[in-house]
């Protein structure tokens, strides 16, 4: 695996959540910088064998906006 993609959203209670696409990995943090570290740690824990771990982690930030019609 060369790359793993995380869908990142702002959490309703504050901070950010990140969910991997295609893998059972989920983590959260208060800031984007903390989230990067949490994602790295989660990926290392999920892929115990370094040979199977992705070389690139992509964070896809999604922001939802709601407004009156």
How would you describe this protein?
The chain is of the alpha+beta class and 69 residues long. It is built from one helix and four strands; from the N terminus they run E-E-E-H-E. The chain has a four-stranded mixed sheet with strand order 3-2-1-4, covered by helices on one side. The longest helix is centred in the middle third of the chain and has 15 residues, at 32-46. The model has no long low-confidence stretch (mean pLDDT 94).
Q: What value does the Rg take, in angstroms?
A: 13 Å
> Which structural category do the helix and sheet elements fall into?
alpha+beta
Largest sheet: 4 strands, mixed
Poorly predicted residue ranges: none
Discrete helix count = 1
Fraction of helical residues: 10-25%
* Overall form: elongated
Give a short summary of the structure.
This protein has 69 residues and is of the alpha+beta class. The protein is built from 1 helix and 4 strands; from the N terminus they run E-E-E-H-E.
Give the tags.
four-stranded mixed β-sheet, 69 residues
Describe the secondary structure blueprint for this structure.
Elements: E1 3-10, E2 16-20, E3 26-29, H1 32-46, E4 56-62
Parallel strand pairs: 1-4
Antiparallel strand pairs: 1-2, 2-3
